[in-house]
Amino acid sequence: MARGGTTSYALRRMRANRKADAEHWNERRRACAHALLNRHWITKEEDPDLFYAIRDQYTELRDWFAEFTGFLLVLTRTMAKLDKAPVIAAPWMGFPEFRESRDYALFTYSLWFLESKTELDQFVLTDIVEQVSEQLGASGLMMDWENYQHRLSMVRALKKLRQLGVLRHIDGEETDWAHDNRTKNVLYECSPSARFVLRHFPKELKAYDSLDDFNEQIVYPETMDGDLRKRRHRIYRRLLLEPAVSDQEWSPDELYYVQTQRRTLMDQMQFMFGLEGSRYREGLFFFHPELSGDCSLFPTAAGVSDLVLLFAGELRRRLGSRDWYVTEQGTVELTRTDVEGLLFQLKQKYEEYWSKEHRGLSLGELAEVLTAHMTEWSLGKWVEGESGERFVVSAVVSRWTADYSWDEGEEGTA
């Protein structure tokens, strides 16, 4: 009896240890997948633990992303990068520091300059300016470096490269050069990340006929299997890179896949990312069960997210008392006056709990801030119709509401 009891206890302990090890391995894999999806790259120098975790699970991560998204996982001796691109580009996917299209052009041309450099090569800012100017001139484009705004564009591009770790700063400051480009300079060093900023393209750039063609990650054969892979990749890419995708945003073939493969989609997103999927009348949506250091989640920490939740609750409460109605897709169309009217009601009730910034905005300015935030998160968008401009509130918003609450005996806090 004693030996049997001891054996039974040992078996239970072994099973518990195996289960704990498996769950630990799953958590590590999900942490790696989130980091690869949400970061530009992971370097051994800056995050060695995560880098080695990705290296340990490289085969499984590589195969999953290749099978379901078409993304290429690049692993070198110093860094890991998931080569990814959205199916549909959105303004919020850009660099928030950039203000002009010229900033992106100079960012790209600076990367072209770095292609000729090897690791630890040193050079100065004016070297970049000179060679970029020559390359632009050969294409019939000109930069006026006497123009302060043009110099500021170069400063923003170079600072972004520094932030990404592509340029290593040795001496000098870009802002000093912007104010005095004749006597000031900046010394840089090239990092090994420079060659991995731009994503891999499956074809020569001259082979593309339109900007939309650049969205494809791989070349698909013109067969039934190729069409199926392309559809699957596009669906997973949109679900992973966009905040929410409702049924009306899918093509008929994609919607059929989403509806018939719903269980597989939910299982795979749970397996690799820990995301929980729910099917609503309006579409299949995914949620993260807890806060994550790598994901950008809604609601954000910004006060405007709280305002969106308040707006959602107020809209639901007032639907029956106005001419507003819910469409078959679950959306609600509002005029600019409607949006400002709802915000007026919220301001009357809750203004004392808002930030100083939001309290100081006019209703028109507040409406711009609110709708811009909702547009970034695919919770609404402005459309031009026969009766004028209207803000279409996504069906996703109907799943949320919010209010201010406080413990008994306390005065209200936001």
Descriptive overview:
With 414 residues, this protein is mainly α. Among the domains are: 19-83; 91-196, Arc Repressor Mutant, subunit A; 303-399, Arc Repressor Mutant, subunit A, CATH 1.10.10. Helix content is 47%, strand content 12%. It contains 14 helices and eleven strands. The chain has helices spanning 2-38, 48-56, 58-68, 101-114, 125-138, 148-164, 174-179, 224-241, 252-260, 262-273, 303-318, 336-350, 356-359, 363-376, and strands at 42-43, 72-75, 79-83, 122-124, 167-171, 187-190, 276-280, 283-287, 332-334, 380-385, 388-393. The model is unreliable at 408-414 (pLDDT under 50).
Q: Descriptors for this entry?
A:
three-stranded antiparallel β-sheet; Arc Repressor Mutant, subunit A; disordered C terminus; 12% strand; 414 residues; 47% helix; mainly alpha
Under the CATH scheme, which architecture of one domain would be assigned?
Answer: Orthogonal Bundle
CATH class of one domain: Mainly Alpha
- Treating each run of at least 4 consecutive H or I residues as one helix, how many helices? 14
Outline = globular
Intertermini distance: 63 Å
Contiguous runs where pLDDT drops below 50 for at least 5 residues: 408-414
Gist?
The protein is 47% helix and 12% strand. By secondary structure, it is mainly α.
